[in-house]
Amino acid sequence: MPRLKIAVIPGDGIGKEVIPVGIKALEAAGRQFGIDFDWVHFDWSCETYHRTGRMMPEDGIEQLSGFDAIYLGAVGYPGVPDHISLWGLLLPIRRAFDQYVNLRPVRLFEGVPCPLASKQPGDIDFLVVRENVEGEYSSIGGIQYEGTEHEVVVQQSIFTRRGTDRIIDYAFKMAQSRTAKHLTSATKSNGIYHSMPFWDKRVQEMGKAYPDVRVDQYHIDILTAHFVRMPEHFDVVVGSNLFGDILSDLGPACTGTIAIAPSANINPEKQFPSMFEPVHGSAPDIAGQGIANPLGTIWAGAMMMQHLGYPDVHDVLLRAIENVLRTAQTLTRDMGGNAGTEALGNAVIAEIG
Amino acid sequence: MPRLKIAVIPGDGIGKEVIPVGIKALEAAGRQFGIDFDWVHFDWSCETYHRTGRMMPEDGIEQLSGFDAIYLGAVGYPGVPDHISLWGLLLPIRRAFDQYVNLRPVRLFEGVPCPLASKQPGDIDFLVVRENVEGEYSSIGGIQYEGTEHEVVVQQSIFTRRGTDRIIDYAFKMAQSRTAKHLTSATKSNGIYHSMPFWDKRVQEMGKAYPDVRVDQYHIDILTAHFVRMPEHFDVVVGSNLFGDILSDLGPACTGTIAIAPSANINPEKQFPSMFEPVHGSAPDIAGQGIANPLGTIWAGAMMMQHLGYPDVHDVLLRAIENVLRTAQTLTRDMGGNAGTEALGNAVIAEIG
Ligand SMILES: CC(C)[C@H](C(=O)O)[C@@H](O)C(=O)O
Ligand SMILES: CC(C)[C@H](C(=O)O)[C@@H](O)C(=O)O
């Protein structure tokens, strides 16, 4: 009987409310396939930062390294600047464990009102593949003449051939495995002089190995417009760290699923643990009220099972989410219902059976 | 009788088709107020590049410097890489003439189908204020180990205190002049370590002089989502060069006006000529067919008149556009009609009276 060792970091705010529900759902689905879990909790958060001056202990990465995967709630709280909380936990984990792929599915579900006029469930079903460890997210650079009127800030983006090729190759593979076999690349080579023309060249080059995949590319400005105008056009969309970040929030906004979108931070080679989290943040405004929506966390858990080699568990969880959305009887406030976090979680678990 | 000296750069593709219509509309509206124009044409384009190896002559900037304004169609054509055509014309003009403000209005018009469900004309009316000369649009950086598997691309963004403060200050002033007095700042200080926390600090600092303006800020990822979910929330939105670029395409996509959006590249101090252009590109796929939509070019012309001190001419032009859209009888194909460029232009001119 397989036993999965999962590191759990609930984090801040509603992270602490949705993670327990995610765990319950995973246990219910795992049980059907004889899968057991060891959940080991880490209370790393902004609270920890207030107490210790660090988001996680110095040997935090080491502590996580033996796990099969990491299950993260959300990090960030008022009083701790974002760039401290995130560069102290989320971003170092992504990097230390070389989770260079960020996967974010975008789907229009039955039962979820679509903000776009005249789209039907089934019309929209695509995947954003985001580079997750280099590019525009960089702490390289600094400030000259700090604090004076002559201040100059230099911010560097770093794109390596290795880092660029491997994410593009991953995206091509994903596209090839799907029915539409269609890859869209996000660029901005008309404005950003060095990195983006390089990106385009690598897309062209890597594409040679995938003659059956249709490729197009759009500048990020018009691409965001196309997400609104013709979301059904997209199948797999690949972007740099920043562009992927933008597109993977915009995509779910177009399908009304921003509150339930999952994010998988993947090390495809499985040399290191991968990390799974909902896209939403810690939401201090509704924290503590028991009304947070746990579906993104459950969906992230489903992606974790897929990654760990249990696609059946993934499918059971996803079908349960679909069914709960379709009947729309037990939804949280953000989706127009009045159920609490636990009730919605229980509805999913009931569907799992 | 005022005589305005306008440099005209039709550029490539449909740029050459919409600019003549824009000129006719401006003449018609100007006539009502006794304003005359000298139009001086410059055939700078990708064609010029093919012939001469340059997008514009070496003394191009000098040639433009005596004009009251520049009226630009669109630049770019297949066979000339974007980063060459744009860094050879559009971007140097913006910089040489210190057009550090890019203004892009977003409006939901009566008669224009909205891609968002359940929005009404009047719900959406905001302005994107984009930094237009520094930031992420930078040719600083380069490639190490070029052409080998060890390639590393460094791409720098440069944010100066002066450049950041003046765009933020301009945005505050715009917000203060409007009814809602509401400014939204686009950031990404949780991922981009140096430049974006600096941007946030400057917003906070500059805001002190505008206690009557309500300020909020969103990370660019969730901000794009909010454009789709609650566009009525926004009044003035300020962003860096890249974020402003993205938001000013996404905004018009949300109101179905991407084909008719205008862009004003402004030097507020009027030390140098400002430049006015439609947001759309040269659209090689429909060029030469006489079906391009000229409304963005006319709207850009209206903004030119506003900038040059003739708000009445602006208003006449804008009302004409509104009326043509409302009756929806003479629209181009992109808006669901079957009129050509000239017919739509004539409809606007008829409305001008
Ligand atoms: C063509 C391109 C360089 C330009 C930009 O990004 O500035 C365009 O998208 C715009 O918004 O005017
Ligand atoms: C919190 C932030 C640093 C993070 C990111 O931009 O990567 C988040 O937006 C995400 O997409 O996971």
Report the sheet with the most strands of chain A, covering strand number, pairing sense and barrel closure: 10 strands, mixed
Strand order of the largest sheet of chain A: 2-1-3-12-11-4-5-10-8-9
Q: Give average pLDDT of chain A, whole number.
A: 95
SS-based class of chain A: alpha/beta
Total number of helical segments of chain A?
A: 11
Counting structural domains of chain A, the number is: 2
Order of helices and strands of chain A: EHEHHEHEEEEHEHEHEHEEHHH
Description of the structure:
- 2 copies of one chain form a homodimer.
- Chain A has 353 residues and is of the alpha/beta class.
- Chain A has 2 domains: 1-100 and 267-353, Isopropylmalate Dehydrogenase, CATH 3.40.718; 107-266, Isopropylmalate Dehydrogenase (3-Layer(aba) Sandwich).
- Chain A is built from 11 helices and 12 strands.
- The mean pLDDT of chain A is 95.
- Chains A and B meet through helix 4, strand 6, strand 7, helix 6 and helix 7 of A and helix 4, strand 6, strand 7, helix 6 and helix 7 of B.
- The complex binds 3-isopropylmalic acid (2 copies).
